[in-house]
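Protein modeling request. Please complete all fields; requests missing the sequence field cannot be processed.
Requester role: graduate student
Desired output: 3D structure, token encoding
Chains: 1
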Amino acid sequence: MVSLGVLLLFLGVAAYTDFRWRKIYNKTVYPGIFVALIANALGTWLLDRPQAPGFATTWGLVGLSDSVIGFLACGLVMLACFLLFGIGGGDVKAMAMVGAFLGLEKGVQAMLWTFILGGAVGLTVLIWKVGAWTILARVGRQLLSVLGVKQWTPLTEQERSALAMKLFLAPMAIPAVLLVTELGDRLFM
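Delivered output (189 residues):
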């Protein structure tokens, strides 16, 4: 559980700077990645010691190999999103940090929940800014054009600007991490 608290501390700083200045600073995520890898390496080393029973589980450590695999998996998926979809570089490093703390399984789950929550917030903001009826009418027109009933109409500048909003993934990572950890199990089971 200590590991979860440290991760939430780093994510809290990243969420604040992401929301406030639209940046996730390296001085936040690099120490977080370092702490996760060192703590999990120490946990792996202590797992082999009979005088430290339960240390890794008490502290919420996943072991060095799972930490490195989680770091690489989350980092590489986010790197692909960075290259293909324009996700921010700070989000890539923040999700890699989550993978380093939580390991492969829970890290990927947290990353997916971050996307789901971010998409839900983005859709809510879009509905708030544009209006539900306007969105439904536009979707209906485009569906008719796909079916061949009506000709495709390109988006207007106003519609493009509404769709070009930036999402804040770091604040969404906090509830995502809480959902996939033991704390989430306690809250929702």
